[in-house]
Specification:
With 203 residues, the protein is an alpha/beta fold. It has 7 helices and 6 strands; from the N terminus they run E-H-E-H-H-E-E-H-H-E-H-E-H. It has a single domain, classed as Flavin prenyltransferase-like (Rossmann fold), CATH 3.40.50. Helix content is 39%, strand content 16%. It starts with 6 loop residues before the first strand and ends in a 12-residue tail after the last helix. The structure holds flavin mononucleotide (FMN). Flavin mononucleotide binds next to helix 2 and helix 4.
Length: 203
């Protein structure tokens, strides 16, 4: 059996819910994954606006280790510019097995739905769909317009999994971190990783 690290692309865009992104990153790093990371300009802003200056892109590893523990150092990540359409994940010949756009803005959703490939997030998502690999889109907006709903349908029809940022309350969450754990857990499950981010429902 290969001991190659599992490789997953993570895109962070400018929709509210930066905590979902950092929790997902930390959980995958703890599993020893290599993450191909791309963050849009507004995604960078969201990290700072919602989590504070210590979560700025250039300090992300230290932020994750301080918040989630040194277990995150089991994994690794490469950060790409969203303008770099020649990056590894812009090609179907790379070995990245799946991609998560978390959180996904309505603008990026529209770009993915219509195959625009205007930047690396959109191009990498397009690659995942054309190669029939796992693409998980975590949209966040409320309420939603008809074009936004149709864009989700287009992505789902093309094989993407639409996983709205809708944490459950039957787990009796007490903190924002509990809510983020739930969403990260759903993402890891969809990627086929075992985890203990939330207790399984026993009926
Ligand atoms: C603080 C803040 C919160 C935002 N929240 C959302 C949101 O929840 N959903 C959304 O679709 N756009 C949201 N936006 C708007 C997007 O960031 C904006 O449309 C941006 O152009 C998206 O670009 P990107 O997809 O390249 O990151 C927000 C913007 C700001 C500054």
């Amino acid at each position: 059996m290969s001991d190659r690290k599992r490789s997953i692309a993570i895109a962070i865009t400018g929709a509210s819910g930066a905590l979902y992104a950092t929790r997902t990153m930390a959980a995958l790093l703890e599993q020893g994954c290599h993450l191909e990371l791309v963050i849009s300009d507004y995604g960078r802003r969201l990290l700072r606006d919602e989590l504070g200056e210590t979560a700025a892109v250039d300090k992300l590893t230290d932020y994750l280790a301080a918040k989630y523990g040194d277990g995150i150092r089991a994994g690794s990540y490469t950060l790409y510019s969203n303008k770099d359409l020649g990056a590894k994940i812009a090609s179907g010949s790379q070995n990245c097995e799946g991609m998560v756009v978390v959180p996904c803005s309505m603008k990026t959703l529209a770009g993915i739905a219509h195959g625009l490939s205007r930047n690396l997030v959109e191009r990498a998502a397009d690659v995942m769909m054309k190669e029939r690999r796992t693409l998980i889109i975590v949209p966040r907006e409320t309420p939603m317009s008809l074009p936004q709903l149709r864009n989700m349908t287009l992505c789902a029809e093309a094989g993407a999994m639409i996983m709205p940022a809708m944490p459950a309350f039957y787990q009796m969450p007490k903190t924002l971190d509990d809510l983020a754990d739930f969403m990260a857990g759903k993402i890891l499950s969809a990627l086929g990783f075992p985890h203990a981010l939330y207790p399984s429902w026993e009926g």
